[in-house]
Amino acid sequence: MTNDSSLSTVVVVRNPQGLHARPADMLVRLANQFDSTIKIGKGSEHVDCKSILSLLTLGAAAGTELSISAFGSDADAAIQAIVELFEAGFHEMNDEE
Amino acid sequence: MVELQGIPVSPGVAIGPALVLDADGYRIPRCLVAADDAEDEYARLSQAVDFVSARLETNRLETSAAAGNSTGDIFAAQLQMLHDPRLHAELGRRIRDDHQSAPYAVSRVLNNYATALRRLDNPLLADRAEDVLDIEKQLLFELGAVTRQPLADLSEPVIVLAHGLSPSETANLDRRYVRGFCTETGGPGGHTAIVAKGLELPAVVGIGPFLDSVNSAGTVIVDGDRGRVIIDPDEQVLCEYRKRLADRRSLTARLAELKDLPAETADGLKLQLSANIEFPSEAEGCLQRGADGIGLYRTEFLYLASEREPSEEDHYEAYSQVVREMDGRPVVIRTLDLGADKMGKRPHAEYEHNPSLGLRSIRLSLRNSNLFRPQLRAILRAAVLGDIRIMFPLITTIGELRQARMLLNVVAEDLQDSGVPYRSDIPVGMMVEVPAAVVMLDVFAREVDFFSIGTNDLAQYTLAVDRSNEYVANLYQSCDPAVLRLIAHSIEVANANNIPISVCGEMSSNPARALLLIGMGVRCLSVPPSALHRLKKAIRSVTSEQCRQIAERVMKLETAKDVDLYLLDRLEALVPELVVS
């Protein structure tokens, strides 16, 4: 018997500058707090959410829809935390003058 | 002998041995290790990663302490890249399975990532490619594959041949040894071109791929007048160019003798001849060449030269240095004239589909008053030291001008309240570089103290041509009759309202075009310091009536080409010394 579960959802990149270095760094840090395998995808391309270089090469500009899927014991919490981070626009919107 | 054609962006001739930089300034050859040594090779890589990691962490802490966390985070992201699990998986596979040397694996994998980022066609992510390559370079250094920066520690004259050079790389070239440069990429309107001209380094850009066929030891001639680069010239060509170099030097020496004479025509029409600068250190040279003032101080490099945003003190120091140096002569400071396209890694940089029509220049400043205020404060404070004037770029509507002036007043009140010395009565001017501003110039004339025509942008917006776009750059002609009519109209309105008007774009630095502008009624010209002597020579060689006749004839011509040919013809007749053979 395993508690592992697989979950997926869709998020939208809200911060105006897209998924550039700073948000990607935040996302990787967050993903690393979970044991689950987390994938993030644009169209048919799915990459490891714990790899900043993969995230950057997705080239996700503002408005891009991304699919998030997680597999593992804490998949639920991982998805929830990631969705919150995207919804908060990576806390970047407040920096804009 | 190989002859290449590119875009001439900075005039002059340079001859010297080639220093070839490949795309990233170094090249790692394909190299394999014995299967038995693969594990040791991987251990060597791990150790290099540890060293680089420690250095990045130090950078992060020191930068955060000095410039705040958001700047320090640049290194946090680099650290994240260095420890990327996919990166290590790929490096491990190449070293352990394919038996590649650590330097070769590092170079291949990181270059692939950089290429992938550049291909996304997003300026913000293209800059991340630089971060990736920076990590590559640091790893290669730790692995002993790169020993030094090729452009540091030069000890003999060289001509730099590179894929591309950034404006800051160009600015940092060691002027004692670098005689000129040529690059595969680049265009006539780029900042690299402006810097090269400012530094008086003969330069040819946009040649297209050629580095692979160059032997690094050969002699190279850079002909910045014609956009020609000659690699391994034969004796005859070399002799010809050596003679041109000698002729140029003697002409330069003769022109330099004019420096203390006024810029006035043979019949006594006095003109104001000022200089355009980017760096405070250029002011001294302007004075030595007899400039009447600084007609255009471009402040962009304060923003581009450093990773962090310039503080009020950074601005103040730069402006104070220039105004002190100019010793009472006027200094026109143009506020930030950058767009999202050129802000690089700055937090204000946003990706725009069409940056030339986007959030740039005064629009960017008005949207980001935290960026704008320190600059305005510094200008008002430095104005205590001399004749400083402020000029706003890319003003398109009267509302923008009023908003900018209002912010200036608010800043002045702040300074007053906090008891900081400043001058509130400094002349306020605007650039005329958008057709809308020309059309409405009579309205603007009631609210400014001076105008300055920026011919580069005016031509770009009149002709709907982005001059940095290689597909249409050939359509960009500052002597297009449409542009000339807008300039003529501007001069007429300015003169009718008694508002001084100058021309500070590239157009005025060409002696023949300068004579045309004088004929059209312009009395103030501002040009790169390197053009001051040539321009003075041209002005002193003609009468105001000859200039007027040139303008009268030109305004009847129908194409830019006709204008250019006619102007060249007149210059040849009136000031033959200045026509380069």
UniProtKB/TrEMBL annotation, chain A:
The keyword Manganese does not apply. GO terms for molecular function: transferase activity. It is an enzyme of class 2 (transferase). InterPro entries: HPr, HPr-like, HPr-like_sf, PTS_HPr_Ser_P_site. CDD domains: PTS-HPr_like (cd00367). GO terms for biological process: phosphoenolpyruvate-dependent sugar phosphotransferase system. The keyword Cytoplasm applies. Belongs to the HPr family. This is Phosphocarrier protein HPr. It comes from Novipirellula aureliae.
TrEMBL record, chain B:
GO terms for molecular function: kinase activity; metal ion binding; phosphoenolpyruvate-protein phosphotransferase activity. It holds the Pfam family PEP-utilizers_C. It is an enzyme of class 2 (transferase). Its EC number is 2.7.3.9. One of its GO terms (biological process) is phosphoenolpyruvate-dependent sugar phosphotransferase system. InterPro entries: PEP-util_enz_mobile_dom (IPR008279), PEP-utilizing_PTS_enzyme (IPR050499), PEP_util_C (IPR000121), PEP_util_CS (IPR023151), Phosphohistidine_dom_sf (IPR036637), PTS_EI (IPR024692), PTS_EI-like (IPR006318), PTS_EIN (IPR008731). Its main location: cytoplasm. Keywords: Cytoplasm, Kinase, Magnesium, Metal-binding, Phosphotransferase system, Pyruvate, Sugar transport, Transferase, Transport. Transmembrane segments: none annotated. The keyword Nucleus does not apply. It comes from the Bacteria. Phosphoenolpyruvate binds at residues 298, 334, 456-457, 467. Residues 253-542 form the PEP-utilising enzyme C-terminal domain. Mg(2+) binds at residues 433, 457. Belongs to the PEP-utilizing enzyme family. General (non sugar-specific) component of the phosphoenolpyruvate-dependent sugar phosphotransferase system (sugar PTS). This major carbohydrate active-transport system catalyzes the phosphorylation of incoming sugar substrates concomitantly with their translocation across the cell membrane. Enzyme I transfers the phosphoryl group from phosphoenolpyruvate (PEP) to the phosphoryl carrier protein (HPr). This is Phosphoenolpyruvate-protein phosphotransferase. It comes from Novipirellula aureliae.
